[in-house]
């Protein structure tokens, strides 16, 4: 039966490239920052909905390593929005039993933002519900490079043998060490690229692209993506027939 090989379930780890805030604003003759503000409201809505439907891991790409090259005023506004968001969201995270984490190069972030993030992580560390991860100052090539350097250092000082390095043990050197690989990646705003996001971790993720800009991405859009995911056949290199026999035992 064809149905037997379908997913039929929720992604364990959902990752989202939240794109299109600037275009959303520009289409309304508004400054780009208004799009980012509206984007924060979408974050609240989607985090809440993911909690409700029972997603275990939600990772949001909020600011890339490359985004530092944007105009200074935009970067500054984004940083202050981020700080405000974190401060306001911690009580809700506590209510929802959400664990908060950050991946990316935290050292690049302004000190006040870093402190707000560290506080949120510390306060929510014991929560056992959904893990909400923000990718901030995140670049996947940079992540892989720092992992390679850390591996080299461990080999040089005798803590690791080259033969012990496996896909699993290498993953432990990435920012995402504590996270499973994403099952589904959503990118909004019609762009069909990865933009240096989780290059290693997305190896077998299902990809979903929508034309909708992030500020307009609502519950309905989320459910459309989740329903689409349910219909995907994840073969991991096998044939459909093999999958069927695995499932039917
Ligand atoms: C996504 O929206 C948010 C960030 C990258 C910080 P954009 O700001 O990239 O919006 P567009 O792509 O210019 O429309
Ligand atoms: C990717 O969006 C980064 C985030 C969503 C935070 P960008 O808007 O920066 O990506 P490009 O430049 O269009 O590839
Ligand atoms: Mg963009």
> What is the helix content?
40-55%
Strand content: 5-15%
Bound small molecules, by name, code or SMILES, are:
3-methylbut-3-enyl trihydrogen diphosphate, magnesium ion
The CATH topology label is Undecaprenyl pyrophosphate synthetase
Structural class call reads: alpha/beta
Number of domains: 1
Q: What is the approximate shape?
A: globular
Q: Could you say what the CATH architecture is?
A: 3-Layer(aba) Sandwich
In this structure, how is the largest beta sheet organized? 6 strands, parallel
Structure notes:
This protein is α/β, with parallel strands linked by helices and 249 residues long. The chain has one domain (2-138, 180-248): Decaprenyl diphosphate synthase-like (Undecaprenyl pyrophosphate synthetase, 3-Layer(aba) Sandwich), CATH 3.40.1180. 43% of the residues lie in helices and 14% in strands. The protein contains eight helices and six strands; from the N terminus they run βααβαβαβααββαα. A six-stranded parallel beta sheet has the order 3-4-2-1-5-6, with helices on both faces. Strand 3 (99-103), helix 4 and strand 4 (131-138) form a beta-alpha-beta unit. Helix 2 runs parallel beside helix 3 (72-95). The longest helix has 24 residues, at 72-95. The model has no long low-confidence stretch (mean pLDDT 95). The structure holds 3-methylbut-3-enyl trihydrogen diphosphate (2 copies) and magnesium ion. One 3-methylbut-3-enyl trihydrogen diphosphate is lined by residues 17-19, 61-64, 67, 191, 193, 195.
């Amino acid at each position: 039966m064809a149905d037997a090989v379908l997913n039929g379930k929720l992604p364990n780890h959902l990752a989202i490239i939240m794109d299109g805030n600037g275009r959303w604003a520009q289409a309304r003759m508004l400054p780009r920052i208004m799009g980012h503000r509206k984007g924060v409201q979408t974050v609240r809505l989607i985090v809440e909905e993911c909690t409700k439907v029972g997603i275990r891991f939600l990772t949001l790409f909020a600011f890339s390593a490359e985004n530092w090259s944007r105009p200074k005023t935009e970067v500054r506004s984004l940083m202050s929005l981020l700080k405000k968001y974190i401060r306001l969201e911690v009580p809700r995270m506590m209510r929802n039993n959400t664990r908060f984490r950050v991946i990316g190069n935290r050292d690049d972030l302004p000190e006040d933002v870093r402190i707000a993030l560290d506080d949120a992580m510390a306060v929510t560390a014991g929560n056992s519900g959904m893990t909400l991860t923000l990718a901030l100052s995140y670049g996947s090539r940079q992540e892989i490079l720092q992992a390679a350097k850390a591996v080299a250092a461990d080999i040089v000082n005798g803590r690791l043998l080259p033969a012990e390095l496996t896909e699993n043990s290498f993953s432990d050197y990435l920012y995402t060490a504590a996270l499973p690989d994403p099952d589904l990646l959503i990118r909004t705003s019609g762009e069909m690229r990865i933009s240096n996001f989780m290059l290693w971790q997305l190896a077998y993720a299902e990809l979903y692209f929508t034309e909708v800009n992030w500020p307009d991405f609502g519950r309905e859009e989320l459910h459309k993506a989740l329903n689409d995911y349910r219909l995907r056949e994840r073969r991991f290199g096998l044939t459909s027939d093999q999958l069927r026999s695995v499932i039917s035992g």
